[in-house]
Amino acid sequence: PKVQVSLPTFIPKPIKRKQLYSLYGQITPLSTSTKENVLSLNQPNTSARELLDKPEPVATIQTGYGELRSVSCLNEDKIWTSGLTNDIKCFNIKGVLLQTVKPTLGMFPSDIAIDSDGNLLYTLWEKGTVSIVKNGQTEMLVRLHGWTPSQLCVTSTGDILVTMFSVDYTQSKVVRYSGSTEKQSIQYDRDGKPLYSGNARIKYITENRNQNICVADLAAGAVVVVNHDGKLKWRYTGHPSVTKNKLFQPRGITTDSQRHILTLDFYNKYIHILDQDGQFLRFIDNCDLQDPFGLCVDNNDNLFVCEFTKGNVKKIKYLR
Question: Domain 50-319 is of which CATH architecture?
């Protein structure tokens, strides 16, 4: 007999794509996020704290300076201080002198700061340098040409922010350094106008917990705040209750765990406390401050204030 063989054939059906996709699962898109690498330069106190109705002085440290300009907190018990002499002194809270650092003979530091490892940093106008003291040894980090360093601070990520002015006294800017390497220069707003007054007047600087950069521009009579990228956030030009009589000319500036900004009003002898958005909260005006100049806050939100002519540092409790 004759055998017939019929080959199999494939009859396709319509493909239901959605059902097919569900069998394979899905791939989520690539996503990136940034996370702040915050060091314990000033250990953040995350609990909410309220301002005291009446701040109170709790200690006075006599430094022996005739003209005391800067104070920087090493910890709750020790502070570094500098004035218009060529020595930088470390005291404990009882006023005992613990250590002295002498910059180049005959030169006084423009400002001082402490990094997260407890190392001392300072700027010298005459030499145009930023230096660090590690284990008793001084190392120059930055030498400027055409610019003069003024005030400085250390950020939560370990960078150094330095205010500086041009040698012809016409420009000012903030420069960020990682060690000796320049990373960022902040000088103009989005319209190309200078953010800071162009002169050699004092411009103390600090970083807030939100990484905003806060500068007390004495000559401009303003606190100028930019974000981490150098974009202008706001300016504070004083409170009308005092500026109607005397100009607001801020000296020192610092921040605390609540992101408050504290700045010194030299002529009115007030400390202005602002929130992180530049809104005035209150004065500290009851602590009998004599010619207040520089200031800092320790890890427990205790405030330390320099008295310029008396050479004292007052420790003030202002938060509950």
Answer: 6 Propeller (2.120)
